[in-house]
């Protein structure tokens, strides 16, 4: 019972919103309910941290690793709900349902972090995805035909990715006769050098998570979906599913064992392609959300640099980096959301003169963007330091050099965002007045990005403990 | 640790305090209202930092090459990053230069900056903290953090308070410096993985293979060469200088450029000695090119700020030349030249800022024949211009002389080229002074249209007088400063010497062909 507390808290939240969707309740009460209930889920996750156990015939593991991610994911949900104050981009009649499906997707994600059996994994993955398929077209109608396009694209790519994953699972099951990760980890390392099929099976299995993480070659959906979905939905899609993907990538990459030459090579090549493609494509974007989509493809590559090391250092760095990425990306989406009171998309022209219209938003954007660019003392810098240290420890100099060259390219477009926010324009736009709660959130982002970057040790201790529990 | 560090014995942790005072001052700035209060607050904080930094000079132990006033704390045990601070004879003067120049930056912005004063003071104090951090960090990662953290405030200084082409200049500055340092980042991690430490003094004691040293050296040198800036990488400097507000230019010229020179001395020489010796001929040639091209380009400028910016390229050429001559006199000359350039060029940029406030133009032609209306101003202009061209009796003379002595004692041809650079400096500075002070003036005042050309007020005079003291002090009595460097430079050269023999180029001798040719060329052996 107590082991399952975070899931129960979210289930309760889902049920509440289900009944609310039958009533005429509207903002701001809905948001308050969302905040209180998601805070409850965070508390439940924190409360169960440190517990250990297995449920459902050992298909579902509760340990430091899964609970750390549950804390991160539920906390991310809290921030996303906090961030979308009025849900200004969402159709008025659909707001309760929006919260319902958002929670449902989060529920899938926290199940993912505990799933240690292939069928459970695919089930959680599907719960997390299906809820998202539904809320992408929830965007307010009007000039936008894009939400539908985005929804369809996300469904089609998602279905294809799940298909590939299932196909990969069938290979693995066929060769090993088990679906439990705990058994697989004993069999696969011995098999990987003799049976190439298992390698193919593993890579195909990972495809579903590459899709969630938007890693090359499963990244095609990202720019269109980010662009088409409402700002607050993009903020969710851009962050939480990626954290969920990292959980399972860590579990699955660990399956292959540490010295698995070809497997590492495949992942390294995907990482480099993802970084290079993401960064180069981001250079020419005008829509900020598209830009962030391509940047997220690049960041998926950086995270992969840590994960493919398959060492404790690499996994810990990966967890640290994806958490930092969650915060930095949410900071950028926070600015986008507040810049677009009617829920429209933001381009570079809209950012111009931001530092006069709202110094706080401009500074939050600067901290978020510089963070993603890897300028110290932000969490992005410290994360890259850890990732690259892990990679060089594995003698992957070429990978690190390609990664830092990519960092250099990426700075250009992050700087372009900051530059736009800090250029003055002739015709001054009206000031943006922020509510006190919004103001607080902006300050929170600035402080947490700088604090985690400067004093990472506290978080690292948790991450190390989690990795030790997982491997 | 004790073999490298002498822990701080003052009643306060001086190095931490030097960073903390501006940093906390910066955050308090955000709560202060009123431009006048902000200015006074900024001045107070920077002056307090200066006062607190003085023990670095007076309590400095001249007899040791260890790092003094040191502090040590664990920081991120996950990858062995610790918070280690300390200064030696190479860095202590640069720290003092920073703390002395910063109050002047506030003073010269007193009426220059018209908008967003609070943010301006915030950014200035923030950059002061990170600049001091660069010079006192003894941990690679800590150093790199300050090195990069400095970029953002400097970018904002140019991008928000800059001139008409601020957009172009600020982004060029940012990208150049950042891209230069990405390989530095890899080199730092590679060193850590090889040795298991980020602690700089310990990294110096390890011996690396020659090819490893080459890679490390190249990665470091690229970052520092861009920062200095050395010849092919200098193009960001004129753009940044011209667009930056006065305080930005002063910080850029007086302190930021020094980080390149400091980096060479602190990292390249002791960590990669064999590679340094191997690359020496090339770097000497590049330094000479910087000196001559910088001077030559300065000759052709009509914009005063651009002229001084190009002259900086030339002066910093002397610094790198002094460093890579790899002898005692040369390195001391280089460090002294860094200090001198900080004082003199900083003052020249302040002077340009003052005239720009009055005429709103930086063109020489718009600011000519000032002698009759602004006598105090032109007196300072002449003093600092003479100092810039290394006139005997001024500070730069001592520095350049030392570097030239080092040149002639090692490679006479190099000395010959460096002298050409010195002559070019005289040519462009005297031309500037002639135009600005006299031009074709007939010696009579022509009242009317020049009413905006009022002479310097007390604040401006005080700012420049302060720097003038240093011009003549170092010009006539540089011994105290040279004494401070003495032990550390000797130790540095010993490190290079022993490191060179420990891992000689050896089987890479075939690589050495070109290097030998260049070396012979500059040694005048053909």
How would you briefly describe this protein structure?
With 471 residues, chain A is an all-alpha fold. Helix content of chain A is 75%, strand content 1%. Chain A has 20 helices and 2 strands.
Task: State the main characteristics.
heterodimer; A: 471 residues; mainly alpha; two-stranded antiparallel ribbon; 75% helix; B: 526 residues; globular
How would you characterize this protein structure?
The complex is a heterodimer of chains A (471) and B (526). The longest helix of chain A is centred in the middle third of the chain and has 31 residues, at 146-176. Helix content of chain A is 75%, strand content 1%. In chain A, strand 1 and strand 2 form a beta hairpin. Chain A contains 20 helices and 2 strands. In chain A, helix 1 (5-20) packs antiparallel against helix 2 (29-48), helix 3 (64-83) packs parallel to helix 13 (312-339) and helix 12 (288-307) runs parallel beside helix 17 (379-393). Chain A is mainly alpha-helical and 471 residues long. In chain A, strands 1-2 form a two-stranded antiparallel ribbon. Chain B has one domain. Chain B contains 21 helices and 3 strands. In chain B, strands 1-2-3 form a 3-stranded mixed sheet. Chain B is mostly helical. Chain B has helices at residues 14-29, 35-53, 55-58, 92-108, 117-136, 140-149, 151-161, 166-195, 200-205, 210-227, 236-243, 246-271, 273-299, 304-324, 328-359, 375-388, 395-410, 412-438, 458-476, 479-502, 512-522; strands spanning 5-7, 67-76, 81-87. Chains A and B meet through helix 16, helix 17, helix 18 and helix 20 of A and helix 6, helix 7 and helix 8 of B.
**Which structural class fits the helix and strand makeup of chain B?**
mainly alpha
* Residue windows where pLDDT falls under 50 for at least 5 positions of chain A: none
* Strand order of the biggest β-sheet of chain B: 1-2-3
Number of self-contained structural domains of chain B:
1
Rg of chain A, nearest Å: 21 Å
Radius of gyration of chain B, whole Å: 22 Å
Hey, roughly how much beta strand do the residues of chain B contain?
under 5%
In terms of quaternary structure, the protein is heterodimer
**SSE order of chain A in H/E notation?**
HHEEHHHHHHHHHHHHHHHHHH
Question: Can you count the helices of chain B?
Answer: 21
For the largest beta sheet of chain A, what order do the strands appear in spatially? Answer: 1-2
Form type of chain A: globular
The number of helical segments of chain A is 20
Shape of chain B: globular
Percentage of residues in strands of chain A: under 5%
Helix content of chain B: over 70%
């Amino acid at each position: 019972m107590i082991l399952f507390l975070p899931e129960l808290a979210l289930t309760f939240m889902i049920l509440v919103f289900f009944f609310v969707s039958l009533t005429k309740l509207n903002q701001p009460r809905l948001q308050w309910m969302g905040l209180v209930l998601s805070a409850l889920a965070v508390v439940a996750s924190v409360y169960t941290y440190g517990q250990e156990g297995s449920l459902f015939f050992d298909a579902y593991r509760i340990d430091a690793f899964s609970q750390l991610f549950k804390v991160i994911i539920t906390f991310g949900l809290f921030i996303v709900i906090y961030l979308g104050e009025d849900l200004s981009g969402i159709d008025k009649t659909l707001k309760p349902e929006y919260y319902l499906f958002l929670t449902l997707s989060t529920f899938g994600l926290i199940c993912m972090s505990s799933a240690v059996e292939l069928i459970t994994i695919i089930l959680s993955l599907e719960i997390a995805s299906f809820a998202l398929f539904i809320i992408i077209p929830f965007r307010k109608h009007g000039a936008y035909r894009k939400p539908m396009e985005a929804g369809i694209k996300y469904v089609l790519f998602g279905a294809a990715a799940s298909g590939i994953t299932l196909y990969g699972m069938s290979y693995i099951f066929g060769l090993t006769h088990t679906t439990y990760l705990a058994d697989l980890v004993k069999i696969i390392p011995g098999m990987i050098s003799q049976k190439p099929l298992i390698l193919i099976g593993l890579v195909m299995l990972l495809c579903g998570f590459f899709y969630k993480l938007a890693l090359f070659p499963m990244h095609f959906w990202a720019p269109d979906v980010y662009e088409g979905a409402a700002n607050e939905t993009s903020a969710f899609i851009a962050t939480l599913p990626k954290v969920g993907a990292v959980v399972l990538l860590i579990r699955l990459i660990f399956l292959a064992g540490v010295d698995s030459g070809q497997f590492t090579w495949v992942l390294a090549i995907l990482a480099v392609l993802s970084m290079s493609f993401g960064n180069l494509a981001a250079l020419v974007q005008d829509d900020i959300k598209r830009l962030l989509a391509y940047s997220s493809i690049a960041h998926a590559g950086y995270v992969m640099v840590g994960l493919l090391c398959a060492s404790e250092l690499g996994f810990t760095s990966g967890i640290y980096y994806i958490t930092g990425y969650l915060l930095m990306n949410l900071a950028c989406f926070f600015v986008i959301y507040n810049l677009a009171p009617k829920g429209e998309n933001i381009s570079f022209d809209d950012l111009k003169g931001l530092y006069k219209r709202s110094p706080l938003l401009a500074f939050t954007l600067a901290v978020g963007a510089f963070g993603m660019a890897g300028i110290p003392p932000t969490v992005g810098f410290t994360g890259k330091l850890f990732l690259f240290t892990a990679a060089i420890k594995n003698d992957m100099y070429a990978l690190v050099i390609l990664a830092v060259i990519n960092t250099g390219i990426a700075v250009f477009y992050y700087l372009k965002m900051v530059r736009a926010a800090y250029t003055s324009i002739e015709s001054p736009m009206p000031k943006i007045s922020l509510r006190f709660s919004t103001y607080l959130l902006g300050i929170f982002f600035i402080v947490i990005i700088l604090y985690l970057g400067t004093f990472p040790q506290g978080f690292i201790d948790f991450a190390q403990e989690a990795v030790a529990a997982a491997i | 640790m004790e073999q490298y560090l002498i822990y701080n014995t003052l009643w306060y942790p001086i190095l931490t305090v030097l960073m903390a005072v501006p940093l906390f001052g910066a955050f308090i700035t955000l709560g202060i209202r009123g431009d006048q209060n902000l200015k006074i607050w900024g001045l107070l904080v920077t002056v307090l930092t200066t006062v607190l930094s003085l023990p670095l000079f007076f309590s400095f132990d001249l007899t040791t090459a260890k790092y003094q006033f040191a502090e040590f704390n664990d920081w991120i045990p996950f990858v062995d990053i610790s918070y280690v601070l300390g200064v030696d004879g190479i860095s202590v003067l640069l720290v003092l230069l920073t703390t002395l120049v910063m109050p002047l930056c506030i003073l010269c912005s007193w009426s220059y900056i018209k908008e967003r004063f609070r943010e301006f003071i915030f950014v200035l104090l923030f950059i002061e903290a990170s600049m001091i951090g660069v010079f006192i960090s003894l941990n690679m990662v800590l150093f790199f953090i300050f090195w990069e953290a400095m970029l953002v405030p400097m970018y904002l200084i140019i991008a928000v308070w800059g001139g008409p082409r601020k957009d172009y200049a600020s982004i060029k500055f940012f990208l150049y410096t950042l891209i230069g340092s990405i390989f530095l980042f890899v080199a730092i991690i590679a060193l850590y993985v090889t040795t298991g430490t980020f602690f700089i003094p310990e990294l110096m004691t390890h011996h690396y293979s020659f090819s490893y040293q080459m890679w490390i050296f190249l990665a470091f040198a690229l970052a520092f060469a861009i920062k200095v800036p050395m010849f092919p990488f200098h193009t960001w400097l004129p753009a940044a200088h011209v667009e930056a507000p006065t305080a930005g230019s002063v910080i850029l010229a007086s302190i930021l450029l020094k980080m390149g020179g400091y980096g060479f001395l602190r990292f390249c020489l002791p960590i990669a000695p064999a590679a340094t010796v191997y690359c020496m001929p090339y770097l000497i040639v590049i330094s000479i090119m910087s000196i001559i091209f910088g001077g030559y380009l300065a000759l052709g400028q009509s914009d005063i700020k651009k002229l001084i910016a190009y002259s900086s390229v030339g002066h910093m050429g002397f610094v790198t030349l002094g460093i890579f001559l790899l002898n005692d006199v040369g390195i001391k000359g280089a460090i002294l030249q860094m200090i001198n350039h900080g004082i003199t060029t900083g003052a020249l940029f302040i002077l340009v800022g003052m005239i720009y406030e009055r005429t709103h133009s930086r063109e020489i032609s718009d600011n000519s024949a000032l002698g009759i209306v602004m006598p105090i101003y032109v007196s300072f202009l002449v003093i600092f211009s003479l100092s810039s061209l290394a006139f005997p009796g001024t500070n730069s003379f001592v520095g350049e002389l030392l570097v030239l002595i080092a040149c002639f004692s090692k490679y006479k041809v190099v000395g010959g080229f460096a002298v050409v650079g010195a002559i070019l400096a005289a040519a462009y500075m005297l031309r500037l002074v002639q135009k600005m002070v006299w031009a074709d003036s007939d010696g009579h005042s022509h009242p009317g249209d020049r009413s905006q050309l009022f002479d310097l007020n007390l604040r401006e005079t005080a700012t420049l007088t302060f720097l003038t003291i240093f011009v003549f002090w170092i010009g006539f009595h540089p011994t105290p400063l040279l004494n401070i460097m003495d032990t550390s430079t000797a130790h540095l050269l010993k490190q290079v010497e022993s490191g060179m023999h420990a891992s000689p180029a050896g089987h890479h001798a075939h690589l050495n062909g070109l290097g030998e040719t260049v070396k012979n060329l500059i040694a005048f052996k053909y």
